[in-house]
Amino acid sequence: MSSYSIFDGPGGLPMVRIANAFAEAEVSFYGAQVLRYQPRDARPVLWVSEQSVYRYGKAIRGGIPVCWPWFGAHPGDPAQPAHGYARILAWPLIEAVELPDGGTRLGFALSPQALAERIALPDFDATLSVTVGRELEVVLKVANLSRVPFPYSGALHSYFAVGDIGRVRVTGLDGANYFDAPAGAECVQAGDVTFAGEVDRVYRSEAVCDIVDPAWERTIRVAKRGSASTVVWNPWIDKAARMSDFGDREYQGMLCVETANAREDARTLAPGAAGELAAIISLR
Ligand code: TA6
């Protein structure tokens, strides 16, 4: 039985749907962005805004945007798009594999030529794999094919669906140093992360994080490889109201726990070197 199929999604954007014994998932070729991950007999794990825009040139608000080759604002050129180009370019499908355990793996490739038209970068190879099985595994692999160092930062900017953000807590970051963006300050996390206002923090942490969601009586585990930073974000009321692709009350049902290498954890690939950034997401 074929576990994947290609179809036209919102805005006519081509997408691929995976359906196997473990879960259903949907990935947009635009941005190689996982937009849906729903284990069998469970609610959707990922969140997508009902106000999201499905148009080339604008990042889709939700799922797992691929932020690369930089996280946040471009380090030197304010005219460049926030969070890089990967999430606003089409990634051709290069692999679709039905795995022995019944899972499914898709592979996408980012065209260096598509980026070269927009920004000068060392010659690279970038691929993204999505594996839907007992867990959801998303892996960004980058290789430096040039003879010069390749500096970059990035994130798998995962949006998660929760029942009530006011009751959610994120474990695993106790004692971690973080940059608090709204405060503009370096801080140290005390206990679990809870939410009673805008939270926009870049933690220096490689820890596994659990999103404990009492309202929906579940825990979402976010494990990772190749990531020294964990970003936690909820825009809360005022910032949500300022975003046209984010419903005013949608902040109550979502948060981001991002698998990243950001700020001091930015990477530099030596000539010929390769690196990966992986998020492994599961329900507990
Ligand atoms: O990951 C958190 C963050 O950097 C926030 O500061 C906020 O800007 C969010 O990403 C979303 O960014 P976007 O460009 O997708 O609106």
Spell out the helices and strands N to C: EEEEEEEHEEEEEEEEEEEEEHEEE
Estimate the strand proportion: 35-45%
Average pLDDT rating = 97
Q: Return residue spans where pLDDT drops below 50 for at least 5 consecutive residues.
A: none
Rg calc: 18 Å
Record the strand order, biggest sheet: 6-7-8-9-23-19-18-13-16
What percent of the residues sit in helical stretches (DSSP H or I)? under 10%
- Ligand types: 6-O-phosphono-beta-D-tagatofuranose
Content-based structural category:
mainly beta
Please tally the β strands and state the result. 23
What general form does the structure show?
globular
Distance between the termini: 28 Å
Number of helices: 2
What does it look like?
The protein contains 2 helices and 23 strands. It is mostly beta strands. Strands 6-7-8-9-23-19-18-13-16 form a 9-stranded antiparallel β-sheet. Strands 5, 11, 12, 14, 15, 17, 20 and 21 form an 8-stranded antiparallel β-sheet that branches. Strand 2 and strand 3 form a beta hairpin. The longest helix has 7 residues, at 236-242. The protein is globular and about 45 Å long. It binds 6-O-phosphono-beta-D-tagatofuranose. Residues 59, 72, 82-83, 157, 181, 200, 231, 233, 256, 258 line the site of 6-O-phosphono-beta-D-tagatofuranose (TA6). The site of 6-O-phosphono-beta-D-tagatofuranose has 11 residues, from strand 20 and strand 21.
